[in-house]
Structures are given as C-alpha cells and as structure tokens.
# Entry
Amino acid sequence: MKNIIIICLLTFSLAACNTATKKEEKIDFTKSYETAALALTDAQLNYDAAVASKDTTRIAAAKIQLETAKTNYLNSKTYYTANGGIVKAEDEQLLAKANTALGKPVNDTTTTMAAAARKFIDSSKVNADKKVKQVLGAIATGENKIKQVSDAATTGQNTVKNNVIKANESLKKANDSTKKHLEEIKKQGNDLLNLFKRKADTTKNN
# Structure
C-alpha cells in the first residue's frame, strides 16, 4: 500500500512538472514573439525616420536593422505558432509594411537565415560534386598509370622473348655453318690423304 502511494505521488509530481514545463515554454515563446514584434515596430519607425531625413547612409543602416528585425520576427513567429500561439493581425500588417520597405512582396516570408542556409547547402553540394570529380579523376589517372606500366611490362617481355628467339636462330645458324665448315675441312683432309695414298701405291708398283 505504501509503495502504491509513493508511485502515485511520483506520477502526480511528474505530471505537474511536465505541465509546468510546457506552460513555461509557451510563456517563453510568447515573450519571444512579442519582443520580436516590438523590435520590428521600432525598426520600421527608425526606417521611416531615415527615409524622411533623406540621408543615404542612415537609410542603408536602417534597412539592415529592418531586415534583421524581420528575420527575428519570422523565426519567433514560427516557434510561437508551432506551440499553439496565435499571431496578431497588426503584427502581420507590420510585416507586410516592412516587406514593402525592403522592396519585397507583401507576403514574403523568406529570411536571411533561410537564404543563407540554402546558399550553404548549394555551396556544399557544389563542393561535394567537385570532390567527387577530383576523386574520379584521380582514379582514372591511376588506372591509366597502371595500364601504362602493364603495357610497358608486356612490351618488355615481348622484346626479351623476340631477342631470345633471334639469338637461338643466330646460334643455330652459326652451329650449322661451323659444322658444314668442319665437314668441308674433313673432306679436304680425306681427299689429300687419298691422293697421297694413290701416289705411294704408284711409286711402289714402279
């Protein structure tokens, strides 16, 4: 019984903690959204004042501030609405006014962060494609080098083989020529021997 009571107390405590955490998260998102909306309001007022002053440097700085405030507003709005928040109509009207001031469509919801992310992804893809091409090129070069070495080895083997065949042929020709020459010398010797023998027989008979 005691264990059951402890388990129930732990369950209620966890539920209370979860409820409190969700409530705090919602309050944080709401505060973040409201702060971003106020910052967008201030940036728009500052931009209007800069335009009225006709100071190009001031206008350029105010435009950057307005672009940054718009980005922060859109990011805060995304988290706020994802957690059940409801966007105020006047804040959306202010966003449309900021877009017009920045030379963008009234309903433009792109942010500099999103654009930067897309640019980074595109850049990463280009770099990856470049690396792949470099690797493929290196592989192709390596294969060509291997083929060149293999072809050179084959050519060398064929050259050695041909030289051995030629050497054997030359040796055979030399052996045949020597043998033939020896046979001729032997024949000449026999002819001389037979000649001397006939002369000796003739002298003996006389």
